[in-house]
Amino acid sequence: MFVIMGIAVDSRAPKEWGGLVIGLTLGGIIMMTAGPTGASFNPARTFGPYLVNSVLGGNIKWIEFPIYVIGPLIGAITAAFTYRIIASSRQLPLSNETSHKEVVK
Predict the structure, then answer these.
(1) How far is Cα 60 from Cα 62, in angstroms, rounded to an integer?
(2) How many other C-beta atoms lie within 10 A of the C-beta of residue 7?
(3) What does the pLDDT look like over 1-50, one tens digit per residue?
(4) pLDDT tens digit sequence for 82-100
(5) Mean pLDDT, the chain, as a whole number?
(6) First to last CA, the chain
(7) Dihedral angle sign, alpha carbons of residues 91, 94, 100, 102
(8) Residue 10: strand, helix, or coil
């Protein structure tokens, strides 16, 4: 969510790079965590295997499923608010003509 806020929502960001930046970030996160932990970032992707395993007699701990729903919601809300605070705390120059002293004020 932090990357989405920075590249797709912020009016100062180059919009034409949004898809690439978001895709590479998500791909990197998946490659770092999905293999070692088996975790997913999509609650529907988690629900499907849980349901099939339950129907076929697998040992599924449904008590863990809310983590895949509540965790991303809390994380996304926190990241959005954090980005707003960080982005509003400093003003970027509108052009290269602005001197460093004006930016520091």
Answers:
(1) 6
(2) 19
(3) 889 888 888 888 888 999 999 999 989 988 898 888 877 888 888 899 89
(4) 988 888 876 655 555 555 5
(5) 83
(6) 29
(7) negative
(8) coil
List, in order, residues 6 or more apart from 13 with CB less than 8 Å away: 6, 7
Hey, how many other C-beta atoms are within 10 angstroms of the C-beta on 54? 12
Q: What is the tens place of the pLDDT at every residue in 65-75?
A: 998 899 889 99
Among 92, 80, 82, 75, which residue's Cα sits nearest to residue 11? 92
Q: Which amino acid type is present at position 94? A: L
Alpha carbons within 13 angstroms on the beta-carbon side of residue 78 total 6
Q: Which two tokens stand for residue 99?
A: 């001197």
Identity of the amino acid at 37: T
Residue 94 DSSP symbol: S
Q: Which residues contact 6 (CB under 8 A, 6 or more apart)?
A: 13, 83, 87
